Amino acid sequence: MPELDLxxxxxxxxxxxxAVLAAIAQKTLSAAAHFxxxxxxxxxxxxxxxxxxxxxxxxxxxxxxxxxxxxxxxxNVLSFPAFPLEPGGMPGPMLGDIAIARETVEREAADLEKSxxxxxxxxxxxGFLHLFGYDHMEKDEAEAMESLxxxxxxxxxxxxxxxxxxxxx
Length: 169
Known about the structure:
Helix content is 46%, strand content 15%. By secondary structure, the chain is of the alpha/beta class. It has one domain: 3-Layer(aba) Sandwich (Collagenase (Catalytic Domain)), CATH 3.40.390.30. It has a four-stranded mixed sheet, with helices on both faces. Helix 1 (18-39) packs across helix 4 (116-131), helix 3 (102-112) packs across helix 4 (116-131) and helix 4 (116-131) crosses helix 5. The longest helix has 22 residues, at 18-39. The relative contact order is 0.16. Zn(2+) binds at residues 126, 130, 136. Belongs to the endoribonuclease YbeY family.
């Protein structure tokens, strides 16, 4: 099974304890990495690639979103691949960074009538797939990415977060 070297930074004290977040992230991302390696034949480097997770707040993620994406608003998750990667390509020693905003995760979880942990798990998988070159800018890309998310989440015992929706583009 592919291993990951997770580096975690908790910037907002309202997040659960770092040990809790680390356990959720390790379980989720290990399952996602295993799925990609076994089901999608995704190559992985021999040494565990490093991945940085930043658990932040809406104000911080809004600044990042404005600077890097030109969208002056908070969002749930942002991913920054360390190197450009096409789906199925060999990642480098550093996968990249994933930032997640607590208030947005809480709001969305409540709106979706899902637990905070289940929604956080989905967003971790979503952000992780972005680091491997998956995207949802075009309908066919969105369908492929959402299919992967759904299958990974099913392995974790979670339902399809996109059931009854058109692909997100």
